[in-house]
């Protein structure tokens, strides 16, 4: 995987809906043994999936939105609880790049990888018990299935 692209995944800030309001977090935190200090959402199991811009290829907005809705429909038909979220670079007010994603509660790792492959995404993010990971899902990549461990960093 291209190292600049991987760094951008670590630095992406996600706005995630939770019962106590929006949680802002990135994957570039320090390694912690105890995750009890994290917001409850970050201690659960979920996947972050998107259908936007397959293989980093910029598509027209209407095409991206259509793909994203198809993904949502498939997730709901699979009986998942799905909530909208967004990933962006730097400060939300200054960020040029923003990409919608679905927060998929309780999705297992293998199914998240399958969705990433079907929708031609470079990676998916899967979180289990406070431990997120970035998983390569691009079928054209030499390191498909490779996992990069990450750590939550709560942003304010």
Chart the SSEs and their pairings.
Blueprint: H1 3-11, E1 13-16, E2 23-26, E3 46-49, H2 61-77, E4 81-88, E5 98-105, H3 109-118, E6 123-128, E7 131-136, E8 147-149, E9 153-155
Antiparallel strand pairs: 1-2, 1-4, 2-9, 3-5, 3-6, 4-5, 6-7, 7-8
Protein architecture, described:
The protein is an alpha+beta fold. It has one domain (3-29, 38-155). It is 23% helix and 29% strand. It has 3 helices and 9 strands. The chain has helices at residues 3-11, 61-77, 109-118; strands at 13-16, 23-26, 46-49, 81-88, 98-105, 123-128, 131-136, 147-149, 153-155. It has a 9-stranded antiparallel beta sheet. The longest helix is centred in the middle third of the chain and has 17 residues, at 61-77. The termini are far apart. The model has no long low-confidence stretch (mean pLDDT 93).
Sum this structure up briefly:
With about 160 residues, the protein is an alpha+beta fold.
Low-confidence stretches: none
Structural class: alpha+beta
Q: Which radius of gyration do the C-alpha atoms yield?
A: 15 Å
The main sheet comes to:
9 strands, antiparallel
Q: What is the H/E order?
A: HEEEHEEHEEEE
- Count up the helices: 3
Compute the number of strand runs.
9
Mean pLDDT: 93
Describe the global form: globular
Strand order of the largest sheet: 8-7-6-3-5-4-1-2-9
Gap from first CA to last CA: 30 Å
Strand portion:
25-35%
Overall tally of domains: 1
Portion of residues within helices:
10-25%
Offer a few descriptive terms.
single chain; 156 residues; alpha+beta; 9-stranded antiparallel beta sheet; 3 helices; 9 strands; globular
């Amino acid at each position: 995987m291209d190292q600049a692209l991987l760094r951008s995944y670590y630095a992406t800030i996600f706005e995630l809906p939770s019962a106590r309001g929006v949680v802002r977090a990135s994957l570039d935190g320090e390694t912690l043994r105890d995750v009890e200090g994290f917001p409850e959402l970050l201690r659960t199991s979920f996947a972050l999936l998107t259908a936007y811009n397959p293989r980093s290829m910029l598509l027209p907005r209407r095409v991206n939105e259509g793909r994203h809705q198809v993904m949502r429909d498939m997730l709901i038909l699979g009986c998942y609880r799905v909530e909208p979220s967004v990933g962006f670079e730097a400060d939300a007010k200054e960020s040029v790049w923003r990409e919608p994603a679905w927060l998929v509660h309780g999705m297992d790792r293998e199914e998240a990888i399958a969705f990433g492959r079907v929708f031609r995404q470079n990676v998916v993010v899967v979180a289990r018990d406070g431990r997120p990971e970035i998983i390569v899902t691009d079928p054209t990549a030499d390191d498909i299935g490779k996992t990069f461990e990450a750590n939550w960093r709560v942003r304010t």
